[in-house]
Design goal:
With 457 residues, the protein is mainly alpha-helical. It has 18 helices and 2 strands. A two-stranded antiparallel ribbon has the order 1-2. The longest helix is centred in the N-terminal third of the chain and has 31 residues, at 134-164.
Length: 457
Amino acid sequence: MSVRSPAAPTRAGRRMHGPQGPSQVIILSFAAAAAVGTALLALPVSTTGPGRASFFEALFTATSAVCLTGHLIVNTATHWSLFGHVVILALITIGGFGIMTLASLLGVLVSRRMGLRTRITAAAETRSIGIGDVRRVLASVVLITLAFEAVTSLALSARFYFGYDEPADRALWLGLFHGVSAFNNAGFALFDDNLMGFVDDAWICLPIALASIAGGLGFPVLLQLRREITRPRLWTLNTRLVLATTAALLVSGTVFVTAMEWNNDDTLGKLSPGGRLLAGFFLSTMTRTAGFNTVDIGALDPATWLGMDVLMFIGGGPAGTAGGLKVTTFAVLFFIIYTELRGDGAVNALGKRLPRSVHRQAITVALVSVAVVVTATLALLILTEFTLDQVLFEVMSAFTTAGMSTGITPDLPRAGQLILVLLMFLGRVGPVILASGLALRHTTRLYELPKERPIIG
């Protein structure tokens, strides 16, 4: 008589009943939101001209909006009607809150209680530590999001009204749309040239940049700063890593972009020194997944593109509205390399020792992301005649949900644009699911294989 492993009934039970875990629910929810958005944008009322948008135009725009990317194949300002703009704004809001966050909030409002699976799913999306604290966390997320979006929207509305003589209703709409798009790092704008007409207007650029930075820090950081902003000694390692790495990237990115484009008359060269610094700071900030642009991205030096590829790949903080590899992953990789170069045994970061499981998770997420970018870049090089630096920029921008473009996206073949759609979706849900899956997966072996060291290098 055989003896069944204790784990076998559990696995069989999962196969029989098939309940969906947080990862599957997140994927299906984002896909559902994109599908509904596609259907709405495909309606004749969503476009300004006669007829309706094509299915692929609607699909590309809806995916870009719900994944907080801002990648475009049609002009947002002129192609879509007011109804279409409202749909895009709604998709951005849904993507920013997170599908699971919205589902949990609706569950609280309707039944004033959460099922265990819903609460676990919400915890996975918001990165909250205690399942019992999910309700409080979600309430705080809503308050913080509304506060940042309201302040940014009001500041922008005032500028549009007093500085550009926009009618009151138009100014309020412009302020609201760009305020929400900024905090959610979406990059959608209601002007033909995105924000190029405001390249040296600090009253427009700074509120959008600050809102994008705040959204990119991630909800766990914002929640802790809300509670303990005056007590940094109580900050978690995650908060300190995000703040320190973000500050370093903002400074280094601004210096790099401004220096590279200082004498480029097609970008920063014709601006005043103050305008160049503002434009360089704004471009550096937007590169880390916010996606707005005040200069022509296609006119940048290819070396600047490469530097921006690196910034896009790093991205923002975890569990926020930014995409990319995430600054915490980048910081962990940095400390791993630093430790190896020093010959130390344990990896320490800011006075804390990092578990070995974190090392493996960071390396895995980074290598999988590199593999996705390389594969997509190779595919587009085969499908198109564009140069490597252009294709790499588009791929990196889509996968990291940055949404910037050298201008080649509308000219890509349909297969190439479909690759970008998949990249936007993978870039939004992939790193979250991969990282959480690695953290939750734990297998205990009853034996160890003998060690043998291969030659490295």
